[in-house]
Prior knowledge:
The structure holds 3 protein chains of 3 kinds. By secondary structure, chain A is an alpha/beta fold.
Amino acid sequence: MTEPTGTTLAPALEMRGITKRYPGVVACDGINLQVRPGEIHALLGENGAGKTTLMNVLYGLAAPDEGEILLDGRSVQIAGPSDAIARGINMVHQHFMLVPVLTVAENILLGEETMANPVFLDRKEAHRRIAELGRRFGFEIDPDAKVGSLSVGWQQRVEILKALYRNARILVLDEPTAVLTPQETEEIFAVLRRLAAEGHSIVFISHKLYEVLEIADRITVIRRGRVVGERRPAETNEDDLAELMVGREVQLTVDRGTSHPAAPTLHVSGLAASDDRGHPMVKGVDLEVRAGEIFGIAGVAGNGQDELVEAIVGMRRPTAGSVTLDGVDVTGRSPRGMNEAGVSYVPADRHRFGLILSFPVSDNLVLTSYYRSPYARGILRQREAIDRDAASAIARYDIRTPSANVDAGTLSGGNQQKAVVAREFDRDLKLLVLDQPTRGLDVGSIEFIHRQVIAKRDAGTAVLLVSAELDEVLELSDRIGVMYGGQIVAVIDGPTADKNAVGLLMATGGAERDPAAAAEEAAG
Amino acid sequence: MSASTPSAPRPQPGLVARAWARLAIPLVVTVLAALVGAAIILVSELLVPGVEFSWTLPITAYQALLEGALGSPEAIVSTLANSAPLVFGGLAVAFAFKAGLFNIGVQGQFLLGALGAVIVGVWVADWPPILAIPLATLAGIAAGAAWGFIPGFLKAVSGAHEVVSTIMLNYIAVALLAALVSGPLKVPGSPSPVTFDVGNAAWPVILGRIGHIGIILAPLAAAFVWWLLRRTTWGFQVRAVGANPDAARYAGMRTKRITIGTMAFSGALGGLAGTCVLLGVTHTMTSGFGTTVGFDSIAVALLAGSEPLLVLPAALLFGGMRAGAGLMQIKAGIPVELVDVLQAVILLFLVASPVLRRLLHLNTARNEPATPRATNMVPDVPV
Amino acid sequence: MDLTPLLDGLYGIPLLGILFQAIGYLVAAIPSNGSNILNQATPLALAALCGVVCERSGVVNIGIEGTMLISAFTAWVVGIAVNPMFGNPAPGPVFGATLPLLICVVAAVAVAILVSALHAWLTISLRANQIISGTIINIFAFGITGYLDQLISKSSPAGAGSFMAFTPPEALVNLPVVGWIFAMFLNQGPLAMSMIILVIGLQIWLFRSRWGLRTRAVGEHPRAAETVGIDVLRLRFRNVLIGGVFAGLAGAWLTIEATNSFQIGMTAGRGFIALAAMIMGRWTPLGAFGSAILFAVFVQVSQLIKIAPPEGDLGTIMGSVPAQLWDALPYILTIVILAGVVGRSIPPAADGQPYEREAAA
């Protein structure tokens, strides 16, 4: 961490009184932000607090309605991304802006092409500069590798190289650790510290309290479009920051209660499955979920959790192994077959799989049961039954919508997910499978859904939960399975689990290694 | 941002305002297309050598067009008879659109339907009509269904995009038809290739001189397709696959089967169009058999916004234009291909309707809290 | 149709014999028809290049067929109008080119650019469905060309003639073994030759130039391209116009190089076959060219079989298939390719999806 020395320099970046309005909502309301040269400044806030909009304004993707931006004390107008880049502002987005089929060099060159002559690219020079930058900041990369073949951690590095190649002075990172293991996070933090030491300014956007406390020199907390506090890490702690973020005493845990598990409902043995491109992702998984318990799967995204869940519920054909439900072999059964056997599945991507956004809410509420009585008699649909049950579900699950006939796409994310939950939870279930059930939702919806999950468990359902939010897994699970490299490498007790121990398992798979090899592994 | 509080209820716009909002675009589009057509007529007068220029030629042309379409009882019957195959063809395209499929192969399915109808029709030509007519009709429908099945099957099994495969099948159908009519189906000894007559399999005439039962079958078909889409689980599946194939799979729908079934059913409707023309009008087939029904059906479906019931007025519009084109050619010397141009211009303005909406300030007159309706007429489908 | 020869033939010959005979027939037929094949492949390859440029940028263009047709018609009509103004000149020394003919080419390309601009406006600015836009262009093209052709043909006007093929030196053509390749590539008119140059040029440009890199990025991940400051919509628009140039050349070939007149619907589905060639060529210019050659071989063979069928039993079998069905061979081949018999290929990831800017800056 760098302390400002002696004379006060003008801040590298200052955003004064930034206000940005969208129809129906004020995304940013008079926000002030100051970042000094060589400082790592964290922007902390919940989903939807306004952090991303603020950075879009900075990056020229949106024009502020009020306020001004100053670079090195001078007021500037930023016309668009290329203008921002020309001024030394670079953004590393939460969802990587990399083209998978192009190489590392091509991705870095895109938009800032090093030319040998007015028409053709200068590959040699580009390779040389990339190698040099990588060495300066501690990693080596093959410029001709196709980005799509790199691991997430390495794609992250490519994104940072993109910024450095353009002589970035101000680097904005939007939720950079969302998909990294604790080990990879430490490595990226090391890179960031080196960048700061060389005088680059870094804006670190996150909603993860622990990381922000670790890496930042100063923290600005935003809530509902306004700055609600500025702290140094030394003068604050998680509870203080959480309260600033959310605005009230936060219960960081929902009361999980005690579980009373009964006989095993789901039994998975030696299950193997590949992804859409044919790469094996699930490499022999054994697990068991008992009725009346929540089994949470912790793991860094991309270790096979999605494919595992899809193979269990019938959305993906397993290449080996078996799935048994209450003693009956259901391996490879279709989604409808599983549904009829008493399995419900809440998919991770609700817009793509969970709902048909252009259909009315009522039709979405019967999406998996439209063909059965009472919603259909033969091929004739029974409108009254559908509408009646829809009204009831909307009331009981507190789905905020003007009517059951509006298109599902008009609902907010939280209400859309509640609709999916209403559909999937609202019957007697043997097994409930949830994948990222609260991603992108507001706190109120999250609490609601967590309570519903616990209620299902208490009613005797076996619950299989997959979440990238380690906190969610720790909060809800009675037992935790750690997934690494396509296998369950450890199963531990939920209530007594230690977060750092789980994180370490997620990163190393539990194998005993020496530190050098572990670092090499993490770098590969 | 959770925006979950409902806004204050808006006052309902008056009846006139609502009617204007609904009808403005089709009306404006038709008027604009007529103006463009007039411009084309005038310009071509200038370009073509040896014709005396006349400002009123467009008016003469449109008058003749209207007269040929609606100017007399025979004209009206002719319009209805011309519209019937367009209803079937338009339903074929519209139904496929609902599933997110582009059936550009109606022309080929039309030809196959006529082929099936003529082959069986000639075979049962001496049977009692009560047997001959349904048999020949069913043969035509089945042949069209087979021709629709092929691209559906290819798409489901190998992902081959149906736009190109259906168009290829159109050309293959033409070749097949020429080969058969010049070969095994040919009436021996006739100077030009032509098949036998279908005799008792011909559709009876119920109105005027040429108004065959297709005039009644068409609205029945439209009602049937509407019922299928809106009231049955099959239709629900078709629409779901068109709106979101991933969610449809999650919901347990067999998307491959639905694709194949949809294309086959669409092909059946296309085959019915061809059957209609063959059994209703021509009763035999020549090697050059074929009308503009194929392209017209696409235009009808687009104009109808893929809604089965709206296919009826859309088919009447284009059917009327086709019926009147002959008289327009005679009286004003305008080639009948102008109707193709008018069709394309109408569609062009429809596709550009967001621009028109803005110009006419129609964006504010929404009376339902729906999601922004797709400005295209068909759900966006990645190719 | 008398099936006896076909059945007799099938019973009498081992299958392998037929296969060898068919291959031998092809090997003998191709060299002597090499220049015809390349000539026939020209419109397909040019139209496929249009497709490659458009789809690599993320825009599907089903309207290539209509664009070609309008260009072909324009080239012919402009010739009729312009030739008398220059006194009906005799064919010039190089490719038989005259000033009116050159004007025809320019006009054809200009009209193609206009039509492409319409497609671009509808699909990029208005974000209309790309297939519908292309279909409308096809309907319009058939209509307007048919309409005008009916009016104009009544007076049987004389056109501007057509380009002539270059005659390569005898020494090259008569070389053993490779002579036919020289004949194939050099015994061509200017448009066909320009096609070869354009194929190579586009291949290099697409993969080694800045424009090519940006185009590929925009077709795969337009959001990523936007975040590095590329104007996705403008790049797409420009590329669709560039694609129009290729389609215009393809159309011009029809009426002022291959023939010197216009027939209604003379494109005969080439615009769609070109799309299949593009897919089979994995969206690369060289691949599209190779696929176009393959199609042209089949078209050529289907013509040959009618005039000079192979000897013996193979000939009998082939002869018993009605002539009209041989005409359908290229279309059947297209379907076979589409069905992935020759291997599945993956289009650019953002192909066919309209793009919306993240925020109005």
